[in-house]
Design goal:
The chain is built from five helices and 14 strands. By secondary structure, it is of the alpha+beta class. It has two domains: about 190 residues, Jelly Rolls (Sandwich), CATH 2.60.120; about 110 residues, no CATH class. This is B30.2/SPRY domain-containing protein.
Length: about 300
């Protein structure tokens, strides 16, 4: 990374994510540019910044080209585009807007999205994050999208994630840099627990609940196919089928991409999902003809 003399950089221990920037001076702007850059026309990239200490909101987050000065804030020259924690957008030492997003505070997690195909930059925050007391694991929160902040960013040069600090002891941590071809959503992870253990913990409870729902749904569908028309209509109004299944399916579809968790989910759930899909097809095409029971047996035998 490239940074101001007033800012100290500390890399996280091996096995943990992120690098931290700490302002050692008082009321002096200092900017840090990541050593990882985003090239033009390479798709959508995202990085995440946690505000470890933000006393008065005098922290900038944004992007800049390699020519940007580290002795000013992000957007303090024509090479930077930045959002300050007092809700103002800055570029070329000019305030572009003064009512964007929400005010920064300590422990906020700011998510920055750069579209290198159309030259736009947007921001958001992970809100209402909580930690489990027993493990110290960040359990996530709600993503608050603040919309497009800048358009018309340069399309002929690399752009670097950048942060600017002003108050003494203000501190931020760059938690991750993500972009094509992985296209993985990047959210903060615990700094006190290795990734495999965290993934396993997150996966276990959700998987057991999903399996329980799918087994229950399969049972209902099998009963419906083998029942009379009146009984079938009653069974198909079961809350697990009408309300719970769509919600669980939607949750699976919106899961972030994580190789361990996604693979484990797929291997565990695909057999049940295949069976349920076939039962829905049987119910739709053959349930009213009285042939359902025999077809259910053939589905189970596959």
């Amino acid at each position: 990374s490239r940074c101001s003399d007033s800012v100290a950089i500390k890399n996280s221990p091996e096995g943990h994510r992120g690098a931290s920037a700490l302002q050692r001076a008082s009321k002096v702007w200092g900017t840090v540019l990541s050593d990882t850059a985003f090239s033009p026309k390479t798709g959508v990239h995202r990085f995440v910044v946690r505000l470890d200490h933000c006393e008065k909101g005098h922290i900038f987050v944004g992007v800049a080209t390699a020519e940007a000065s580290t002795k000013t804030y992000v957007g303090g020259d024509r090479f930077g585009y930045g959002l300050i924690g007092t809700q103002a957008l800055w570029h070329d030492r000019s305030k572009i807007r003064s009512d964007y997003g929400s005010a920064f505070r300590t422990s906020d997690v700011i998510i920055v999205t750069l579209d290198t195909n159309n030259g736009s930059l947007s921001f958001g925050a992970l809100k209402e994050s909580r930690k489990e007391e027993a493990t110290g694991v960040d359990c996530g929160g709600n993503f608050e999208d603040w919309g497009t902040a800048f358009e018309g960013l340069p399309m002929d040069t690399k752009l670097f994630p950048a942060v600017g600090l002003y108050q003494r002891d203000d501190k931020v941590t760059l938690l991750g840099l993500v972009g094509p071809p992985s296209n993985v959503d990047c959210y903060p992870k615990s700094s006190t627990m290795p990734d495999p253990k965290l993934n396993q913990m997150i996966t276990s409870d959700g998987l057991m609940f999903t399996l329980d729902v799918f087994v229950g749904v399969r049972k209902i569908l099998k009963q419906a196919i083998s029942s009379s028309k009146m009984e079938r209509e009653c069974l198909l109004r079961d809350p697990k089928l009408v309300h719970v299944l769509p919600s669980v399916a939607a949750s699976i579809c919106t899961m972030t991409k994580q190789p361990f968790s996604n693979g484990f989910y797929a291997m565990s759930l695909l057999p049940l999902l295949t069976s349920i899909a076939k039962l829905f097809e049987v119910l739709h095409h053959d349930g009213s003809t009285g042939k359902g029971a025999g077809i259910v047996d053939s589905v189970e035998g596959e």
